[in-house]
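Posting for a labmate who doesn't have an account.
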Amino acid sequence: MKIVRYPHPALRVKARPVTAIDADIQKAAGEMLELMYKSEGLGLAAPQVTLDYQMIVMNFMGEADRPDQEVVAINPVILESKGGTVNDREGCLSFPGLYQNVRRAKTVHVAAYNLKGEKFEMVCHDLAARVWQHEIDHLQGTLFIDKMGSLGLSRSQRDLEKFVADFEKDKKKGDLPPDLEPKM
């Protein structure tokens, strides 16, 4: 399992709901958490590792030695956004090194299922709310570049062009299937 980079088509797939929590789902969650920590992230969505279902893993502290802070969310939804919006710096493991301001709700009320199939709800603020919104967007095929303002997107253009060039280079080297077409 590895994290794919923009413009890999898996990042634009609308993930399907999980209908059964089996050993494969549990194994994937564990591997995703390991990858997230290895990459120094706070969250990771299944499409970022080419899995087409609705699962995200998070640790708002980003610390592997704090498993009590881990959240595995299956079929997550935002029930309510409130508290206005905050424009703050954001990055993504599928866009290594790229950071820009993105406007997000200050507070979200979310619902999801854990690995035991139990429904849970959380109300999160600030950074935790931002992580939830970012990761749930991934499940819809929405990327943080889609949420940037025109200035942030303009400032990111060179980085985005490099990601596309690297993607094409990887296809030519055989590291990716040649018929894989990026969806911009």
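Reply:
Got it, the structure tokens are right above this. The two ends are 23 Å apart (CA to CA).
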